[in-house]
Amino acid sequence: MAETISHSVPVPVPQQQKAVEDAGRSLVSYVLPVYNEAEGIRSFHEELAASVATRPEFDYQFVYVNDGSADGSLAILRDLAKNDPRVQVVDFARNFGHQIAITAGLDHADGDAVIIMDTDLQDPPRVSLEMIDAWQSGAEIVSARRRTRQDSRFKRFTAHGYYRLLRHCAEVEIPVDTGDFRLLDRRAAEELRGFRERSRFIRGMVASMGFEQAEVLFDRDERIAGETKYPMRKMLRLAADGVTSFSTVPLKLITRIGFASLVLATVGIVYAVGLRLFLPEVTVSGWTMLMVAMLFLGGVQMLSLGVMGSYIGRIYSEVQQRPLYIVRKVIRYDDD
Ligand code: UDP
Ligand code: MG
């Protein structure tokens, strides 16, 4: 039994799997992040297993990453691993977040193709079969694009706006209305493993790699159980990571705002000095303008500092070079 404490060492392919690979069959790995999904994870696994059973020409590996769940998800996953030799569970020492969980799953997946998928059945397993078809016809990266989604009106509205904003300012072309539900060919997965930045926006990293890309359209279902693990705070952080990892537009924007306020300030200065020189008796009435200018510039400066600060904060956490995640244990079928 491999008791892994390190963070990014890829686990060797089990012997039995190697033999199968040698026989020329392709292995498809699923990367499955789990955070407090105890209510639905069993039905998820059943549905996934039923879906892949319709494509017996491939071998499968299911890499579940338990992202510090506190609701008994781990016990269920352990049970799944005990009953299904294709299941492997990477158990995190605490909650590291969705993007990091996907990263760990990728590090542990050995497939010729790797599929990243949520475990709440919002990404339907049958769609992953369509991705496999697209991969078989030569695509190296297959993204699933949402035709419709069942989330709250607020989430749909903000996501719609965000993807368009990102397309506008990002330096790489990030496909709109596409989450992390994707298939990566072995080559693409290997490349993606090399991206070790801490503020991760995986859909952007994938887009920046190139490769032969394809798309499948799907209707995103509702969660089967439980509620979203992306509250406002986490959603905003992911959104900010997306912008700051792929764009320096905010930094350029503050330069422009700086210029604009400089022009305004010049007008103000000319006006104030003119007034002082030619109409000295009314100068004291300029108090309003003084306040307006001071408060306005103060606000612009604070805002600019904030934008710069968020980039500097990211530089700081990158140079610390801490491990991306800590694994407590990797659980497999043959463990006791
Ligand atoms: N998830 C995770 N760690 C987290 C939050 C979420 O591994 O800190 C997993 C979660 O179990 C699910 C996927 O990431 O499989 C997507 O999360 P969720 O469904 O809550 O996000 P939404 O679909 O609402 O955007
Ligand atoms: Mg979901």
UniProtKB/TrEMBL annotation:
Localization per record: Membrane
Keywords in alphabetical order: Glycosyltransferase, Membrane, Transferase, Transmembrane, Transmembrane helix
InterPro entries for the chain: Glyco_trans_2-like, Glycosyltransferase_2, Nucleotide-diphossugar_trans
Transmembrane segments: 257-279, 291-312
Domain Glycosyltransferase 2-like: 29-192
Keyword Membrane belongs to the record: yes
Membrane topology: Multi-pass membrane protein
Family indicated by similarity: Belongs to the glycosyltransferase 2 family.
Name listed for the protein in its UniProt record: Glycosyltransferase family 2 protein
Native source organism of the sequence: Saccharopolyspora taberi
